[in-house]
Amino acid sequence: MWEIIKTALPQLIAAGLKYTIPIALISFAIGLVIALITALIRISTRGGFFKLIKLIFRFYVWLFRSTPLLVQLFIVYFGLPYLKISGLAPNGIKLDPLTAGIITFSLNTGAYCSETIRAAILSIPNGQWEAAYSLGMTKVKALRRIILPQALRVSVPPLANSFISLVKDTSLAASITIVEMFEVSQQIAAENYQPLVMYCLVALLYAVACTILSWLQGYLEKVTSRYVVAGH
C-alpha cells in the first residue's frame, strides 16, 4: 500500500497544482467580479428600463442556485454544442473542457457570492450612507469609500467558505474530462485496482488544502476586523 501511495502522491499533487488550484482561483476571481456587479445591480433603486436588467440578474441568480452544479457542467460542455444559432454559431457552441469548467464554476460562484455581498451591503446601517452624503460624497464615492470596506469585513467568512467549497467542487470537473486530482485518482485506481486507497488519498489531499484555506480564512478575518477589535 505504501508503495502505491508513494507512486501516486506526486501525480495527484501535480494534477492539483496544474488544474485543481488554478481552476478554483481563476473561477473564484471571475465569480467575485460577477457577484459584485450582480449585487450592486440588484440593490439599485433605479427604475425604468433598469428594472428589466435587475430582473435578468435576479433570474440568473435563481437559475444557478436552483440547479445542481454537475448538471450545469453537463449543459455547458455537452449541451451547448447542440445549440445552433444561425449566423453566430451554426455548428453549435463548442468549448474545450477547461474553458467550459471555468465558465460554469465562475457563473455558479457568482450567483452564490452575489447574495453574500448583497446581504453584506444591506447590513450596513443607513446612517453610514447619510453620514457620507453629509460630507458631500456622491453615492458611488460613498459606496467605494465607506460602504464596501465595511461590507468586506462582514462578507469575508461566507466568501471564504464559498472558496473552500469551490476547491472541493472542482472534483466535478472530472465529469467533463478535465484531468484534475480526482480524475487522476480514478485513472490510477483503474490501473492498480486499489480504489479505496486512491480515493482516501485524494480525499486527504482535499482535506489538507481546505485546512490550509481555513487557516487563511481565520487570518483574513483577524486582519479585516483589527480596527473593530481595537475599538472595543
Oligomer description: single chain
Strand content of the residues, in percent?
under 5%
Label the CATH architecture: Orthogonal Bundle
CATH topology: MetI-like fold
Secondary structural class:
mainly alpha
Question: What is the percent of helical residues?
Answer: over 70%
Question: What's the end-to-end separation, in Å?
Answer: 54 Å
Give me the strand/helix succession. HHHHHHHHH
Largest sheet: none
CATH homolog superfamily: MetI-like
Radius of gyration: 21 Å
CATH class: Mainly Alpha
Quick one: how many beta strands? 0
Question: Roughly what is the average pLDDT, rounded to an integer?
Answer: 91
Figure out the total of helices.
9
Can you tell me the residue ranges where pLDDT is under 50 for at least 5 consecutive residues? none
Number of domains: 1
**Shape assignment:** flat
Quick summary:
With 232 residues, this protein is an all-alpha fold.
What does this structure look like?
With 232 residues, the protein is mainly α. Helices cover 79% and strands 0% of the residues. The chain is flat. It contains nine helices and no strands. Helix 1 packs across helix 4 and helix 4 crosses helix 6. The protein has one domain: MetI-like fold (Orthogonal Bundle). The model has no long low-confidence stretch (mean pLDDT 91). It is a multi-pass membrane protein. InterPro entries: AA_ABC_transptr_permease_3TM, ArtM/GltK/GlnP/TcyL/YhdX-like, MetI-like, MetI-like_sf. This is Amino acid ABC transporter, permease. Belongs to the binding-protein-dependent transport system permease family. It is found in: Cell membrane.
